[in-house]
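Weekly modeling sync, notes
Attendees: S.R. (lead), two postdocs, one rotation student

Agenda item 3: backlog of single-chain predictions. S.R. asked that every request posted to the team notebook include the full sequence so nobody has to chase files. The rotation student volunteered to paste the first one in as an example of the format we agreed on. Action items at the bottom.

Example entry:
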Amino acid sequence: MTESTRELQLVEAFASLADTLVKDYDAIGLLQTLVENCQTFLDVTAAAVLLGDAPADLDLVASTSEASSIVELMQLSAHAGPCIECFTTGAVVSLPVIENGPEKWRPFIVSAAEQGFRSVHAVPMRLRETTIGALNLLRFEEGALSDADVRAAQALADVATIGILHERMLSESDAIRTQLQAALNSRVLIEQAKGVLAYLHNSSTDEAFNKLRSYARSNRLLLSNVAEQVVQRTLTI
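Predicted structure, as returned to the notebook:
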């Protein structure tokens, strides 16, 4: 493969990831594109992504194969293998010869060898101090990935990570805005209810509010719900 051909392929890989981000966003679709790009454009046999908020929570979310053996292999890696070490350290973990892996990874090593894999490389999905998972790259051949492939894999993983964290941030912002708007709407209802009660009982707004709050507390109801019923005249206090 010429250098220009490789560059064109990587441009295509990044473009397909970007398309996933700007169209109808789907995290699984994004990660599936990531693993398929790695299999297509890098010197790897299979690829998989495991995500989680903590080492104990890592789960397989996308893979170039849904065979039960691959799923089991990835989960083994998540418990004692390259994946969990990559997630924990936030650094690339390379095992050019799987058989030479540490004894603590023995179940993963045996399972990988049974399926014909001879080398594995785990790339962190990390942005600054936040690590959300690891990209696992498996090969039938022994040996380390080329520096160019490692850099490309990390760059592809970075794009996907930024996309996921950006979407999470937007979702959290939307939730905060929704909560704030709900609080503001509730306050408007309470003000209206105070006015209604003050008028009906010829009282001050402080007295009206105390009456509203006492009713809500004694009946274990939300203050905003009681206020809404008072305003709609479906509740008399």
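Discussion: group reviewed the output briefly. The CA atoms of residues 56 and 79 lie 7 Å apart.
Action items: rotation student to repeat for the remaining queue; S.R. to check formatting next week.
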